[in-house]
Request: fold
Amino acid sequence: MSTPLDFVALSLLPMKWWGDAVGALRAGESPADVLTRLITERPQQEPLDPAILRRRAAAGLARAAAQRIEAVIWDHPEYPVALSTIHDPPPVLWAIGQVRALHGPAVAIVGSRAGSPYALEVARALAGDLARRGVVVVSGLARGVDSAAHQGALIARAPTVGVLGSGVDVIYPPEHRSLADDITTDGAIVSELLPGTSPQAFFFPRRNRIISGLVRAVVVIEAGQKSGSLITARCALEQGRDVLAVPGTVLGGRNRGGHALLRDGAKIVESADDIVEELGLGVVAPATGSTASKGAAATIEDPVLLALTPGEPADLDEISEQTGLLPPRLLPRLFELELLGSVRRVGGGRFVRVDRPC
Reply:
């Protein structure tokens, strides 16, 4: 049986290997075997030693345990299904706070670190409106638009998720420590990096694929031509997520990146209604009493359920092939069926149909 140690050791391999590592895991290879094979097949100038990687992994797990940091490994049911479907998901997602905030409908709001008062106001308002509709707001805890988005969700007393380019116990920027603490009350701070890892410039472009990987759509507010938010938007498009943008002033160049997205077909966002309508997002409450009977009846002929054999797990690609639904449209339906109790999430981004006796 796989252990967290095996997955953490895998996460210490060069990040450019992660896509192949997860591909091997999806094919059924054990993380211990993947670790040994990749090190053997891909010699480095400075050779990697599996024993040293495992010792580092053990130290990271010990540090995490001392700080109540959860290590959510790739094949655990708590690992976010949406993230598990991207090409190179992290073998381990480290989390402080409420891991349950990583499940269900989510939208990312990103933008300029030097956001104008207009951009910050829009970010707070959009985040608050989405949060009140049951949508989890995801962002990068950065200065400017990111922090305003988190604040908007918190004002609505709803969970929000911050994704770091450092270990989850190394808050960056440091002045956002109080904001991070507030987020972890109902939401979560997450990272793919081993606890204790300091922020480095090259971690942040990698971090952006995690932001987009966790969500249904990315909303860009006030992005210049070289904004890091455009990296997140590009990751979203590569992952099959929707990209939306808030229009702004044409003066000063603040919005050139966002306006370029709009010219390329991104949907214009003026309110949370635009986002909800574009994505068909909605919140399905757990069914009880007579509502449960209606929910059960409504799912009998559901094409997603018909594509699943009771008791046999299937991943998103298999269900997509059977139903003809693309993953960005399939995931919300699977989440709804999960809330109705008709499917259950299992490890490795897979779902299994649950047939209950009459």
